[in-house]
Amino acid sequence: MQNNDIARFCNYLREKLPTWKDLTNDEIDFHLFSSITNKVYKVTAKKEGCEHSPLILRHFCGLEGIVDKEKEIKVFAEMSKTGFGPQCYAHDDDIRLEEFIPSRCIKPHEYKEKLMRRKLARTMAAIHKLEVPNVDRTTLFELILEDKPYFQTYVDKCDKDIYSPEEKKLVEQVRDLVSQEERDFIKEILPREDVSFSHNDLLQGNVLMSDGKEDAIVIDYEYASYNFRGYDIGNTFREATFDYGYPETPYFKIVDENFPNDEELRDFMRYYIVFTDLKKEEGERIGEDLLTNDEAMKTLLEKNYNAEELKKREDSLVRDTMIGVMMSAYYWAVWGLKMHKSVDVQFDYLTFVKALYDIYHSYKKNLFSK
Fold first, then answer.
1. Where are the beta strands (DSSP E) in 92-157?
2. Mean pLDDT lowest among 13-17, 244-248, 309-313
3. pTM confidence score
4. What DSSP assignment string belongs to 10-37?
5. Is the domain of 133 the same as that of 259?
6. Among the ranges given (7-21, 97-111, 247-261), the one the predictor scored with the smallest mean pLDDT
7. If we measure between CA atoms, which residue out of 118, 125, 113 comes closest to residue 294?
8. Is the CB of residue 317 less than 8 Å from the CB of residue 229?
9. Domain final residue pick, 52, 82, 99
10. Which CATH number covers residue 35?
């Protein structure tokens, strides 16, 4: 961390947290976590009696024109209030102090594990049932597709003289993502039903397993908005195939085996549907048993669901999830090119963009070639 950043962050901590006001810079410890967007630090006071130690300091960078900060602040506050996110201690234009939750990030291979997958289904169903006040219910892609400046910044980035010849060749290849033809196609195929409040960014770093309880906790609502449900599910499982713990360039690797097979995907859908339908009190009463007791789940399905109707709901969700994978690749490819050479983060955004570009066109061909 640069000295001017240390000084600024320490001053901010002393200003916002009364019990930290007498600490010197040397009495405040910063540990940088891995991140592909913002800089996220675990901050610890080295003296006793400092409230909220340790905490998270999140430094937002390079997201102008990508993240609606006003909306993000509203959503973060709502998630804190409802228990779906950490507490906020202070925030500014580009800094936020958050509750530190003793936990670990979910690992890419864990998306394939039965219990973890079902916990994710329960958590996602709970988030999707939320009604978040003062947030526009227009879906993410409806907003984006009508936002000409959003796409213009992408085109402007393509035109900049900042690339090597090899990079320029790749940039020109992915330029067609924002063509009018592509945007018209997306408008046609986007699911219009099953719209819910969605996280939209459930990569591994945003899904935490709390110490002791091993419950799935979701953090970082920068990209949250209303969206079709299949996007959140599809984005989650696509992210499972991206391992961001890779230590060498491009600082990620793709592990296709982490994507759920059909049986695993349908198991997720059944639990997602059941937890969506259960009332909160009922879910709290029988939820843990359902996660681990296959016979209890089988009995509940036989008692409360028509097999044919349940399969139709599963089929619809699977279809929307595949479209969600495709649209996740599209969204983050556009995001990645905007981020390239815009932020001081050790990550090869351009290789990331190309990988997502290929995924988008592969799913487009398989889903819509006819």
1. 95-99, 103-105
2. 244-248
3. 0.85
4. HHHHHHH-GGGTT--GGGEEEEEEP-SS
5. yes
6. 97-111
7. 118
8. yes
9. 99
10. 3.30.200.20
Which residues fall within 8 angstroms of residue 159, CB to CB, at 6 or more apart?
A: none
Number of domains in the chain: 2
- The pLDDT assigned to 64 comes to 55
What does the pLDDT average to over 280-293? 88
Terminal Cα distance for the chain, rounded: 52
- Residue in the structure block whose two tokens are 């398989």: 366
Question: What amino acid is encoded at 331 in this protein?
Answer: Y
Residues 45 and 66 in one domain: yes
Closest alpha carbon to 338 in 163, 157, 110: 157
User: Is-contact 333 360, C-beta < 8 A?
Assistant: yes
79, 114: one domain: no
Boundary (domain end) residue, out of 99, 132, 154: 99
Query: Are 84 and 132 part of one and the same domain?
Result: no
DSSP E strands in the chain: the ranges are 28-33, 39-45, 55-59, 88-91, 95-99, 103-105, 195-198, 207-210, 216-218, 225-228, 242-243, 253-254
